[in-house]
Amino acid sequence: MIQSVLHPAGIQASRIGSLWNGYMVVLTTVYVIVILWMLVAVWRAHKNAAPQISDAEERPHSITVGVAVGITTVTLIGLLIASVATGSAVGTYGDKKPDALEIDVTGHQWWWEVQYPDPEPDKSFKTANEIHIPLHQPVLLRLATRDVIHSLWIPNLNGKRDLIPGRVNKLWIEADRPGVFRSQCAEFCGLQHAHMALVVIAEPNEKYQQWKSHQQTPANDPVTPEQRHGRDVFLSLPCVNCHAITGDAYATIGPDLTHLATRPTLAAGELLNTKGNLGGWIVNAPAIKPGTAMPPNQIASNDLQDLLAYLESLR
Length: 315
Known about the structure:
The chain is of the alpha+beta class. It contains 6 helices and 14 strands.
């Protein structure tokens, strides 16, 4: 999984990378020149022990300082223009592009809610801690928060953008190569700030459409007796007050679990999505991620196994 500003996978990140490279070249050059002039000054100071303070001696120094100030001013203005131009190009990249995909991303302490709206309400769906996008298509992320300030940072695709309570910010991304790109919250938001990850999965349009069509389907009906009993266990626990499963539960506080088993991780990247990790998370989530809103659950062993069988069927 890639997370690096030095490996851009989209045009916005490439522009930011080019700006960074430009700054690096200019500032390195300035640094080298300053060091060389400092060494020259030290050498001349040792060579000329007696101070030379006549007007004739000072005039060349004044000219040198004036030229240096002029060059510095021009350099800073050039860097400012390059920075503003890059920011404008990145911020307005997808404006007025009819093929843009829009996705709503909401930050919570400490996980990401991702909603794919659709003109037909029954085709809208939600997932958690992962964003799927098609290659070579502008994607507008509408960013909001349910609690404190968060910040979404996808280094391979764009810079950071804050999620501010009471407003919706926007971030354009577009991937020009397939891959799984790690993202994270970049604004301290509480105890588990460092464990609030998200993945962006860029894939060919055909594969993306297959994933989207699958996400728009309802949850699988339980098939085996264990799965049916596991659904009954789920509906009897406090889980049903927070989580949604299409056709069975409709809460909106926690992540939607309709296709839970298709996700690679649990708890915003904290755990791999395995049966053992899922069981531990259900039984005592605060022990794994202190501060999480998900409470511990006292479940009999056979009920837990059946519940896990049901949740693992949600593909």
